[in-house]
Amino acid sequence: MSDSAPARVRVGTVYTGRQEDKNITFSRVWAMPNAWTFKIGPIASLLRRYVPEGGENWIDPYAGYNSPAYYTNDLDPASPAKEHMHALDFAAMLKKSSSRFSGILYDPPYSFRQISEHYKALGRKATALDTSIAFYERAKSAFCDLIQPGGVAISFGWNSNGFGKRRGFEIVEIMLVAHGGSKNDTVVVVERKVIHSDQPAGI
Length: 203
Ligand SMILES: C[S@@+](CC[C@H](N)C(=O)[O-])C[C@H]1O[C@@H](n2cnc3c(N)ncnc32)[C@H](O)[C@@H]1O
Hints:
The chain is of the alpha/beta class. It has helices at 41-50, 87-96, 112-121, 134-144; strands at residues 10-12, 24-30, 58-60, 71-72, 101-106, 147-157, 169-178, 186-193. It has a single domain (36-188), classed as Rossmann fold (3-Layer(aba) Sandwich), CATH 3.40.50. The chain starts with 9 loop residues before the first strand and ends in a 10-residue tail after the last strand. Bound molecules: S-adenosylmethionine. S-adenosylmethionine (SAM) binds next to loops.
C-alpha cells in the first residue's frame, strides 16, 4: 500500500441525518497483529500521511517503542520515550508550558486486562480507577485542550469513539485493520479539532 491513500477508500455514509457524520474516509485492510501498533504496515503508512517527518509539535503519551511523534512519554522506563511518567502527569507537565500541539497519537492499552498486565510488568498495582473507563476518559479530557484548533488526534483501540465531538473533534478518517481468526480489529480513528482550545471540554 502506498503512503498517499488507503488502497480502497469509501466515503462513509452514516445515516444519522447529521451533516457532521458524513464525509468520513473509511477503509478496511488486513495485516498481521503486533503488540507494537505502529509496526503494523497499514498503520505505519497512515501515520506517514499525517505526522510530519521528525514528528514536530506532535505528542504521544503512550509512546511504546515506535512513535513518530517528537514529544514522547511512556510509563515503562525501558521505552525510548523522552519522558517516563503516568500519562496524566505528562499532560499536566505539557499544560504548564502553555504550548499547543499540532497532533496527538493516542495508543493506550486497549482493555482493563491489558492495563493490569502493563502495570504488573512494571511492578505497579493498577487501582480501581486505572481499570475503569476513567483511565481513558480522564486522559482524553486532559489532552484535548493541548491540541490547537485544526490539529489532529489519531486514536487506536477496539472502538471508534476517538476524542469525540464534545471535546471538539470531528472524525475525518477511520481505518479498520483486521487481523483474522478470533483477533479483534485494530480501529484507527483520525479526528480534527474544530473548536478553539479555550472552549470548555465536555467528557
Ligand atoms: C499499545 S502500547 C503503545 C505501543 C506504541 N504505539 C508502539 O507502537 O510502540 C501502550 C503503551 O502504554 C504504556 N502505558 C500503560 N499505561 C500507561 C500510563 N498510565 N501512562 C503512560 N504510559 C502507559 C505501556 O507501557 C505501553 O507501552
